[in-house]
Amino acid sequence: MSPKSRTILTDATNQFKNGIRRMRSTQFDRPLAKGKENYPSPPPMPSAATTPPLPSQTTDADPHRWDPVNGMIVIKVSVPATDDIWRLRVAEAISLRAFRAKVELKVGFAVAFMDREPGGRQIVSEEAFKRWIAGRVRNGRNHPIIVVRKQQAFILNPSTPTSPLSPTLPTTPMTPITPTMPYMPTSNLSVWSP
């Protein structure tokens, strides 16, 4: 009899007790691992030097993606008041006045433009707007123009002159209200009735 068949016979006869066969799983037949040192170690974490760069630091695959096409350019517009960023396709030679009108129509309030988040320079002249358009694409990325409410821009930068399209704001926080018509008592007025 071979040693293998003998162990099978012995195991089979030893597992009967009081006419009931005891079942053992094969898991318990092999020796158990003692302690954590026998477990495989987890894969090493990547070091800080090998982490991929953030999407804002990467450059687009196509550096000419934002070049003018058929005389049209794409200007990204960021509106922090509504937490929106959208693209506006406009003519390459658009004026500041026409661009402001398009943006005001879209957002529904008088706007001022800034070259970056609060604390940035306000874009109020045609020359500054053209300079911003020429430099809006940096490292293959189209940077947005920041749109703020006209009143907010004035408070952030009170020394900046206001736009001809937007209402003129007072330089002092409280301006007294002066009546446009002299006061007339109502007793001297005649009431018109149809």
Describe this structure in words.
With 194 residues, this protein is of the alpha+beta class. It has a domain at 72-156: Roll (Ubiquitin-like (UB roll)). The protein has helices spanning 3-14, 96-107, 126-134, 150-156, and strands spanning 16-17, 20-21, 72-79, 84-91, 111-114, 122-123, 137-138, 141-142, 145-149. The strands form three sheets. Strands 4-3-9-5-6 form a five-stranded mixed β-sheet. A two-stranded antiparallel ribbon has the order 1-2. Strand 7 and strand 8 (141-142) form a beta hairpin. The radius of gyration is 39 Å and the shape is elongated. It starts with a helix and ends in a 38-residue tail after the last helix. Residues 168-179 have low confidence and may be disordered.
